[in-house]
Amino acid sequence: MNSLLKMTRKWSLLFSIVLLSFSQAGAGNLNAFFSLSTFNSPDKGPYVETYLHVVGNSVKLIKDIQGKFQGKVEVELTFTQAGEIKYHDKYNLLGPVLDDSSVFRTDFIDQQRILLPNGDYDLAIKISDKFSPEQSFSAHRPVKVYFPKDTIAVSDIELVASSTKATEDNNFTKSGLNIIPLVSDYYPQVLTAIKFYAEIYNTKAVLKDEPFIINYFISDHDNKYIAHNLASFKRETPDAVCVIMTELPITDLLSGNYDLTIEVRNKNNALLATKQVFFQRSNSKPVVQSTGDVRALDVSSTFVSYILNKDTMKDYIESVRPISSRNEDDFADNELQIADLKYMQQFFYDFWVKRNSSNPEKAWRDYLLEVKKVNAVYSTRTMRGYATDRGRVYLQYGPPNSITKEENEPAAYPYEIWHYYKLANQSNRKFLFYCHEPASNIYTLLHSDAIGEVYNERWEIDLYSRTNQAGTDFDQTTVPDHYGKKAEEDFNNPK
């Protein structure tokens, strides 16, 4: 079992992260965000840095003998490898001391540094409110630690809430800075820049004294093209560890899923190393669409030239909505309204060129096979399979790792729980669909813990509304235990 790196203690420093106040939950419902990054210390070796952001208003407070109020969260971290525990720790994270329990409570962050050799691990994390034990949750996620000694490598990209020059070392100190992590990868409109930190290793050993370039850019997660020209670079000289701490403006970045990428290239522009992190942007700014390039496309000798039926072309365009960007949806709506076959062909060809410029037809054919699968399984009398909630989730995220089906649970509508081990950079995500009209095969997405999806605190109430078990108390979020009740267990611990 490995020890923690210098300055990592059981009780961490507390910080107020006002930028995440939009995520506040009501008191009594523990709400927290967790993420991690891997780094390499030239002296001590590879390590994992874990980040936990606890929403202050979601923690129960207890009055102490001095009349002060404070919350306490128990955190348990376990790293296993091939079934063997390599690291385990259980500790208490204390909230700020308050004079009045009714005042606004600041959020607080915990960061740990854990030495782990190169290898593949499974991380189990359990978080619980010490003063409200029923408020707890756990999750698993795979962790890969890999920093070779003889090639250039990039650490994980740490998303940053704020940074200041360090006057003394603490848990959050790296490279002379106190870096407070942004634990969520969700960027609301109030955030106007994406700040990030990363380290590059072994450039001195590999490149000697040859300068190199660090490129960094934001690209659309689905289409891979650089968004809004959000790209920059810096020239660097080799060192044992080279640090990049910078930001890119995202004021004009539209709502959608994106990747932030760092590339290391030599003076001949050859790619030496790269690292990427996913994030989600929410921005209500209107979309400005330019169609000049699409209208100029010559598609006469491409695969779309053989699609000569307007209804077929319309159906194909509708089928790609699960993987379309907001811009593409708006453009498609316009093309479908005009219903000009050539324009629809140009849009459809451009759509697939963006995804596979070398072979857009193969990209479409591969996707069409998946569309046929969901049409065969999820179609209803009035909807094509790709237009249903289950079809959309399947096409957007791929097949789930497991599906739990319940058609005859007492008091509940038929439901399915889809479990994904990995979803973009999220882990252990679930989707619950239910069939409000059992004879229809229409399963509606009722609740999911995936970012950007339907989140419904009262999903149990809706699921069990088939009978009077649910009750009419609008503050109620769960239903009483009764014979055969399995949905909560199935969702929290999918098979």
Keywords:
single chain; 9 helices; alpha+beta; 495 residues; disordered N terminus; Immunoglobulin-like
Can you walk through the features of this model?
By secondary structure, the protein is of the alpha+beta class. It has four domains: 1-147, Immunoglobulins (Immunoglobulin-like); 148-285, Immunoglobulin-like (Sandwich); 292-387; 400-492, no CATH class. Helices cover 17% and strands 37% of the residues. The strands form six sheets. Strands 10, 11, 12, 13, 15 and 18 form a six-stranded antiparallel sheet that branches. α3 (310-319) packs parallel to α5. The chain is globular and about 75 Å long. The protein starts with 31 loop residues before the first strand and ends with a helix. Residues 1-28 and 287-292 have low confidence and may be disordered.
Look at the structure and name the CATH superfamily of the largest domain: Immunoglobulins
Q: Helix- and strand-based class?
A: alpha+beta
Number of helices: 9
- Any idea what the radius of gyration is? 25 Å
Give the domain tally. 4
Shape category: globular
Any idea of the CATH topology of the largest domain?
Immunoglobulin-like
Q: Return the CATH architecture of the largest domain.
A: Sandwich
Beta-strand portion reads 35-45%
* Helical coverage, percent range: 10-25%
Q: CATH first level of the largest domain: which class?
A: Mainly Beta
Runs with pLDDT <50, length 5+?
Answer: 1-28, 287-292
Give the strand tally. Answer: 24
